[in-house]
Amino acid sequence: MTKFCIQCGKPLSFFTGLFRSICDECNQKQSLIDKPNLVNNSDKGKTTNNTKIGGEIAYFGLETWWMNELLSEERATILSVYRPFGFSKNSLIDGKITYSSQTTVAFLTGLLGWFKKPEYSKISSKIIKHIESKSTAKGSVMDRHFFLSTKIQNLYRNRDTDASALPATIEACKELISIAPSAKRAFLREYPESPLPSHVGYNQLCIILEKQKNYEEVIHLAKQAEGQGWMGDWDKRIERCIKKQKTK
């Protein structure tokens, strides 16, 4: 089964997946760290106080968001939770990164993946909001695919504590499914020797609809996902829902 980088979300090669949970690019990024930047009110970050900010936050131009949109306790939580394998402590704000092929959306999506637990819902909502404030036209379909996949996982975990989480999950699933054909082409272009991975949008929406006893729509979605080639036990789901239809 294809494994994915816990930092940027990209599929790992077979041998990389055996030994690491992050891709070569993310693993090598640490070696590009130098010394911290000094950000003041005249810099692009325009933080409220002179603050030394470097690392990924500075590289991706997120100083203003980091200092002005997040509370101090939220920043402290992020720094304590975000610990990618192979990265130094506080790599988010320490050091100077000179190059990364990651986009800002891809980086933030990787960060979002660390805050799926309900107790981090305020932090994850701020990350989601910032990603969605950026023009989707500038991002690749792969960026959008991975972001929506992670957004769905975060939202669904909050369904018992946030009344808006489940409807938002369903909408995100529908959006992810709408770009599935384009995402498929992008996956096959970038990873021609690998099968398509599982599809969070199809899978999560099928789970929700099956719980709502909307078996007809589940069967339709499962057949669609299987036809496009996304990994999953679609035949079993279809068979199960057909049986449930007969006993309604």
Describe the model:
This protein has a domain at 25-102. The chain has helices at 14-19, 24-29, 55-59, 63-69, 72-81, 104-112, 121-132, 141-157, 165-178, 180-190, 200-211, 215-228, 234-246; strands at residues 38-39, 51-52. The longest helix is centred in the middle third of the chain and has 17 residues, at 141-157. Helices cover 55% and strands 2% of the residues. The protein is mainly α and 248 residues long. It has 13 helices and 2 strands, in the order H-H-E-E-H-H-H-H-H-H-H-H-H-H-H. A two-stranded antiparallel ribbon has the order 1-2.
Topology:
Layout: H1 14-19, H2 24-29, E1 38-39, E2 51-52, H3 55-59, H4 63-69, H5 72-81, H6 104-112, H7 121-132, H8 141-157, H9 165-178, H10 180-190, H11 200-211, H12 215-228, H13 234-246
Antiparallel strand pairs: 1-2
N-to-C span: 35 Å
Radius of gyration: 20 Å
Order of helices and strands: HHEEHHHHHHHHHHH
Mean pLDDT: 86
The helix count comes to 13
Structural class: mainly alpha
In percent, how helical is the residue content?
A: 40-55%
Query: Spatial order of the strands in the main sheet?
Result: 1-2
**Coarse morphology:** globular
Strand count: 2
Fraction of residues in β-strands: under 5%
Regions with little confidence, pLDDT below 50 for 5+ residues: 30-50
> How would you characterize the largest beta sheet?
2 strands, antiparallel
